[in-house]
């Protein structure tokens, strides 16, 4: 059997899990919405139908003071049980097991009633927590137990106690956030007492026929965090207290070290779960940046864990497991770890979704229905919007023909995949092309389709994308000025001194591309066992990660600023921080990286002229000349429309525009694919 380790059942006490795939916990922000639990039931139910072995829900708080933000979901009374039963019934009807995660935010709560072991404000919250008294600590433990009882009543097969990522239990464990001198603080044995008591009392209250998972922080990535010897000490104490499984947690949310972004090498942290597995008798789950069945299988083969946890990959493709089991891994819509529609949405209090799968968390709002009348559809433009529209239309039963004027499909995705640290876009391209072939979409390359050709179809979709806009700067036509597309596709070889006009996402990508020889990239994609350790070593050195966890918290000095020969300027007109519009959870990573590479970032720039001397400008009314070899234009985008645009109105068939052809401003992959889905469902 392909992926034989991944699909081997596992007997866990009186329960059998049908495979080794765990859909890990992730926040969706659905619980608090109207019909939120109905939407959650559809979301989890679709993944259970896809044959995942075990689902762990997003965090549910055991009491009001433990919520992450106002109005978040709490399970502290029987009145909420019926809502949760919608979820458990939807999942268990497919033979999948489901555990509810119990999460107490502690000082990470974004509200004034937060509590913690010590009154120390978190850098990611504006509130200072109240220090818990001994009596209040005992109440918190009782609330965990009650929450677990109610979860069992709701039909969950077990619970996961969230003890990592810097939430309340983790705050007790770590010296940096626990300054107590009573039985709950001080020495390590006292600091882990809270965690061990919760597990022991939940086990005593719920009995042996209830799955009890503890998410253990293997690597805190904060100062004065745990060493690995301390992690193992806690793991053994949890075993004795009655835990069934140990899940791997990596990094605190306040840590300024990337752990799940696309630039993080795949399965970077699995060596930690491997060390844990060798030291304990209960099964171990590994996690973080695992997004393909090939990588998951290899981790099991190499003994890194007993189970593989993937969260965001199930946003990208609900049928991940079923496709892998059927030997169709090339048909999996792979998570590219961009955070754009999942975590970034959560942090602005929107429901999570996925840029490569707009239906994620919207299953009830965006059903896929077979077409009532089969149409012959022409799509002009083979970028992301065009390919996605072709796929969604063909899935409904339409006959689809895709025209692309260049020699290959991909459009802007081809450029994105060339940016170091964004190699996962190659997986999106692979998925699109494989799916198009599987659905028998007719593809014509180097063919933009003329009016006569299009008139033979029932419907025409224009998805011709974007190109770089030309700013109004004297001398912009000079030979030393190049477009971002020329740079990212390798058409031009830049000199050692470069100025980049525009500091949006494209400007950051170009700066990263230019400094590529001096940066860490996740160049090794598939399969895991064929890659060497170079990427991991470079990444951990760059970000100061101690995977041995000899240093408390697993952090050490980061790499110094690059001594790269390139002299790169990243320029913007607005007086604000560079990359202000980048993703909330990843923008800081890109800024920090470019700073490490020595990129000079200038704001409040007024461009005056370009000539053979270079770029003449003023910065806050002080004139400067940047003596650069090349100027790269990243100042915006404009629509690319067919030469026969005016003639489209003469067609006797409906014509629709999507993606950049509809609107170039602020075009991204999420909007392109979302518009493709919406249009396809209306055809």
Automatic annotation (TrEMBL):
<dbReference type="GO" id="GO:0008670">
    <property type="term" value="F:2,4-dienoyl-CoA reductase (NADPH) activity"/>
</dbReference>
<protein>
    <submittedName>
        <fullName>NADPH-dependent 2,4-dienoyl-CoA reductase</fullName>
        <ecNumber>1.3.1.34</ecNumber>
    </submittedName>
</protein>
<keyword id="KW-0408">Iron</keyword>
<keyword id="KW-0411">Iron-sulfur</keyword>
<keyword id="KW-0285">Flavoprotein</keyword>
<keyword id="KW-0479">Metal-binding</keyword>
<dbReference type="Pfam" id="PF07992">
    <property type="entry name" value="Pyr_redox_2"/>
</dbReference>
<comment type="similarity">
    <text>In the N-terminal section; belongs to the NADH:flavin oxidoreductase/NADH oxidase family.</text>
</comment>
<dbReference type="Pfam" id="PF00724">
    <property type="entry name" value="Oxidored_FMN"/>
</dbReference>
<dbReference type="InterPro" id="IPR023753">
    <property type="entry name" value="FAD/NAD-binding_dom"/>
</dbReference>
<dbReference type="InterPro" id="IPR001155">
    <property type="entry name" value="OxRdtase_FMN_N"/>
</dbReference>
<dbReference type="InterPro" id="IPR036188">
    <property type="entry name" value="FAD/NAD-bd_sf"/>
</dbReference>
<feature type="domain" description="NADH:flavin oxidoreductase/NADH oxidase N-terminal">
    <location>
        <begin position="6"/>
        <end position="327"/>
    </location>
</feature>
<dbReference type="InterPro" id="IPR013785">
    <property type="entry name" value="Aldolase_TIM"/>
</dbReference>
<dbReference type="InterPro" id="IPR051793">
    <property type="entry name" value="NADH:flavin_oxidoreductase"/>
</dbReference>
<feature type="domain" description="FAD/NAD(P)-binding">
    <location>
        <begin position="376"/>
        <end position="639"/>
    </location>
</feature>
<keyword id="KW-0288">FMN</keyword>
<keyword id="KW-0560">Oxidoreductase</keyword>
């Amino acid at each position: 059997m392909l992926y034989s380790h991944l699909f081997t059942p596992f007997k866990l006490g009186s329960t059998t899990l049908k495979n080794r795939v765990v859909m890990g916990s992730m926040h969706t922000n659905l619980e608090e919405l109207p019909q939120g639990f109905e939407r959650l039931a559809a979301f989890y139910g679709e993944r259970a139908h896809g044959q995942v072995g075990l689902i762990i829900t997003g965090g549910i708080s055991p009491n009001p003071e433990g919520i992450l933000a106002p109005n978040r979901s709490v399970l502290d009374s029987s009145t909420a049980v019926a809502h949760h039963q919608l979820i458990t019934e939807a999942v268990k009807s497919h033979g999948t097991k489901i555990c509810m995660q119990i999460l107490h935010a502690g000082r990470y709560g974004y509200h004034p009633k937060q509590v913690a072991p010590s009154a120390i404000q978190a850098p990611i919250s504006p509130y200072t927590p109240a220090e818990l008294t001994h009596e209040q600590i005992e109440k918190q433990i009782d609330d965990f137990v009650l929450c677990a009882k109610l979860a069992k009543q709701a039909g969950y097969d077990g619970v996961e106690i969230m003890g990592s990522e810097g939430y309340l239990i983790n705050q007790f464990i770590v010296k940096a956030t626990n300054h107590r001198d009573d039985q709950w603080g001080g020495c390590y044995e006292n600091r882990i007492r809270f965690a061990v008591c919760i597990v022991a009392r939940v086990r005593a209250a719920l009995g042996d026929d209830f799955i009890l998972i503890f998410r253990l922080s293997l690597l805190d990535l904060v100062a004065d965090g745990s060493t690995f010897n301390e992690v193992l000490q806690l793991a053994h104490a949890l075993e004795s207290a009655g835990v069934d499984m140990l899940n791997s947690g990596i990094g605190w949310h306040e840590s300024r070290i990337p752990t799940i972004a696309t630039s993080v090498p795949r399965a970077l942290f699995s060596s930690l779960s491997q060390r844990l597995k060798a030291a304990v008798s209960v099964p171990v789950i590994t996690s973080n940046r695992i997004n393909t069945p090939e990588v998951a299988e290899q981790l099991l083969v190499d003994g890194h864990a007993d189970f593989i946890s993937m969260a965001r990959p199930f946003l990208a493709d609900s049928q991940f497991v079923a496709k892998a089991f059927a030997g169709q891994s090339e048909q999996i819509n792979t998570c590219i770890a961009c955070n754009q529609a999942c975590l970034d949405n959560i942090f602005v209090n929107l429901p999570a979704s996925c840029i490569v799968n707009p239906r994620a968390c919207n299953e009830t709002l965006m059903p896929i229905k077979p077409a009532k009348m089969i149409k012959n559809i022409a799509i002009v433009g083979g970028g992301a919007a065009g390919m996605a529209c072709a796929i969604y239309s063909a899935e409904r039963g339409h006959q689809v023909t895709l025209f692309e004027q260049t020699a290959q499909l991909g459009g802007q995705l081809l450029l994105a995949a060339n940016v170091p640290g964004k190699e996962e876009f190659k997986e999106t391209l692979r998925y699109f092309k494989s799916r198009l072939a599987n659905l028998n979409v007719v593809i014509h390359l180097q063919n933009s389709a003329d009016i006569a050709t299009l008139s033979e179809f029932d419907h025409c979709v224009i998805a011709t994308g974007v190109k770089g806009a030309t700013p109004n700067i004297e001398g912009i036509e000079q030979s030393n000025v190049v477009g971002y597309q020329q740079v990212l596709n390798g058409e031009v070889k830049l000199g050692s001194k470069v100025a980049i006009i525009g500091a949006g996402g494209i400007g950051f990508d170009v700066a990263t591309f230019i400094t590529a020889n001096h940066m860490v990239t996740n160049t090794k994609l598939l399969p895991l066992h064929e890659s060497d350790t170079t990427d991991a070593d470079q990444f951990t050195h760059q970000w100061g990660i101690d995977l041995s966890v000899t240093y408390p918290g697993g952090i050490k000095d980061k790499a110094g600023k690059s001594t790269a020969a390139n002299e790169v300027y990243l320029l913007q007109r607005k007086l604000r921080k560079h990359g202000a519009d980048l993703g909330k959870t990843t923008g800081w990573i890109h800024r920090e990286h470019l700073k490490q590479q020595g990129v000079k970032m200038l704001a409040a720039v007024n461009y005056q002229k370009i000539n053979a001397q270079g770029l003449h400008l003023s910065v806050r009314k002080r004139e400067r000349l940047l003596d650069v070899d090349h100027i790269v234009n990243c100042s915006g985008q404009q629509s690319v429309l067919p030469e026969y645009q005016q003639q489209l109105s003469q067609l006797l068939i409906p014509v629709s525009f999507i993606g950049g052809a509809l609107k170039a401003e602020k075009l991204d992959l999420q909007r392109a694919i979302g518009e493709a889905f919406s249009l396809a469902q209306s055809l």
